[in-house]
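go over this record:
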Amino acid sequence: MPEGPVRVAVDDACARLLAGALELGDFFAEFAAEHVEKLFPRSGLYDYPDGWRLIGQGERGRDMFVICSGGAAVHQSCGSAAAELARLGPGDILGEIALVGGGLRTANVLVEGPSRIFRLAFADMPYLLKHHPRLEAHLRALAARRLR
C-alpha cells in the first residue's frame, strides 16, 4: 500500500489551473495562490502516490478534486465486471457527480503516477456556488455528460 498523500503549498500555476477548471474567469480577474487559500480555507493541494485510491465507488463523499499534475484512471464496477471509463489529467475535475448528486460516489478513481491534486472540500463550496451560478451549471453539465 502506498504511503498517504502529503499536503503542499499552492503555487500560482496551480491557482491558474483551478481558475480554468472551475471557470472562475468572470468571478476573478486574476486568480493567484493567495486567493486559493482565502476562497478555499478547508481545501488543499496534495501530492498523491501512484496507485492511491482517491475515490471509492459506493462511498459517500462530496469533496471534489482538480488534477494539477499527473493523472487518474476512472473505473466502474458492476458485479464481477469492471470497465475503465476515463483517464484524466491536468485541469480535469473529479467528484462532481457526488457533489451535485447527493454524495454517492459512482466510480473508483485511482491515481496514476505521482500526482498533484487539489482537494476541494465540500464545506468550501456553498459560498462559491451561491455567488457563481455558472460554476454550478458547469458542474451539473459535466456530471450529466459523464453519466451518459
Notes: The mean pLDDT is 89. Residues 76 and 107 are 5 Å apart (CA to CA).
